[in-house]
Amino acid sequence: MLSRIGCALGAGLCLTLPTHAQDGPPVSGGTAIFAVGSDPATINRNISTSTADGLVSCVVYEGLVEVRAGGVIAPLLASEWTVSDDNLVYEFTLRQANWHDGQPFTSADVKYTLEEVSAKFSSTFSITAAVISSIEAPAPDKIVVTLDQPYDPFLMSLNCTQGGAILPKHLFEGTDPATNPVSTQAPVGTGAFRFAEWRRGEYVKFERNPDYWDAGKPYLDGVIAQVLPQSSSRTQALMAGEIDYVASQIMPSSDYRMLADNPNFALIPSPVPSIDVMVVNTTRPGLDDAKVRQALMMATDRDYLLATAYQGAGAAATMPFTNRMPWAADADTDYTKLYPYDPDRAIALLDQAGLMPDADGTRLRVALGYLSDDQDGPLVATAIKSMWSKVGVDVTIAPGERAAMVPKIFVDNDYDLALVSYSSGGDPALGLARMWVSSAAGRCCGNPTGYSNPEVDQLFDQAQQAAGQQARGAIYAKVQHILGRDLPTLTLHERILSSGLTARLKGMEHEYYLPTFREAWLQD
């Protein structure tokens, strides 16, 4: 089976990549090893959107539903549900399952998690939490959620990726979830695999859950998350047979061709659009002026970044959102027309903003940060430093370890500019709104820019209430018009990503974003 990726936007790398075919019935046994880009800071997806944290968390924890390939919502801890005619009341029937410590999973766990952890700590789920009126647990196997208003992506939000992983109330209640040992040392979930060992900086090991509610699964005896901070080392380890899987979020796109040309490996294109952005601390002098931010956008040659730093994979960004979600895209907010690469116009805007050159020709001095495990970060930052020097902006490149940089950017607001990536989550309300809405500020990984616009907040709220993609898309077009003018974030690049894996690892085709390995198996 063949799949074309990277060509849909008319730019970027065009490869014919072999997707992963299922061969024969699953067999049991063996251990799969997957890469993580850094040592997890926590094994609790509901308090962190860090990729490393998510990759390990969703092996252990489960949501009420799972999102499968194609965006299909399927039952997980909820076996079934009904929705009222007005789309406000959702009644879920829960499966009979146990926590990894043997305690029964009940509706009390769901109510506690969604109200006390997901709503309060997850920047992703916080958008959903804002429309929940009440959560009731009328029976151990029943949960009823009532919304204040219709919310189109509600079901999609009830999965591990979106901060809806259900946690054990008996181990978390009355504690700080961020410091609770269940988050920081030994997670206890309902998933197909249970925690076994964590050797800091090296690996996290999980073993098969013999009491898993889905009889016969998982097929694997265990999975291991191998810490590989250097992006190049992940592909090397995969090709050397040392690991079996590299998730799309951390798979070097520059290595796609290497795998595509080798029948012993495969690539699974990610169905979830993602974007690379430069977040701007709009509270910093100079950067607090929209004209300056517009000038910086015009001083950035995004096509050059695509061809060089991003190795030609994906496409140069043309709007605040992503072109890969056509119903929510706004063709009128076109960065190629609004902000073409034009250093002379950038200089004129800086003049208008009152940033005149000093004796050295420097108008503004800024620090540009990025996460040290980001494969593209060094090249992007170096290119931008060179581009911006032409308009009198002096850039200090400031990489940092993920564990230190994430709170510095998203919680402490202690930065000038930073390169980060955002997943759309399959819906703007789940993955993109958090970049700009006021309510997502101060938590990982929401709005770090200091930008707060009541009109933008209101439009995002209206879009998540509207029924159907056509109505929602019209509202998102208005949002992007404002964001395209104010530019609290500079969207640089459309990611078109694929996971890399050994051809003998099967059953991964249904995984939507963060893999669970619950249906994975190894072919002899």
What would your notes on this structure say?
With about 525 residues, this protein is α+β, with helices and mostly antiparallel strands. Helices cover about 25% and strands about 25% of the residues. It has helices spanning about 50-60, 105-120, 125-130, 155, 170, 180-185, 230-240, 255-260, 290-300, 300-305, 335-340, 345-350, 375-390, 400-410, 430, 455-465, 470-485, and strands at about 1-5, 15-20, 30-35, 65-70, 70-75, 80-85, 90-95, 130-140, 140-145, 195-200, 205-210, 220-225, 245, 265-270, 275-280, 315, 365-370, 395-400, 415-425, 490-495, 500, 505, 520. The strands form 7 sheets. The chain has a 6-stranded mixed sheet with strand order 16-20-15-19-17-18. A 4-stranded mixed sheet has the order 3-12-11-10, with helices on one face. A hairpin with a 3-residue loop joins β4 and β5. α9 (about 290-300) packs antiparallel against α12 and α16 (about 455-465) packs antiparallel against α17. The protein is globular. Mean pLDDT is about 90; it is low at about 1-20.
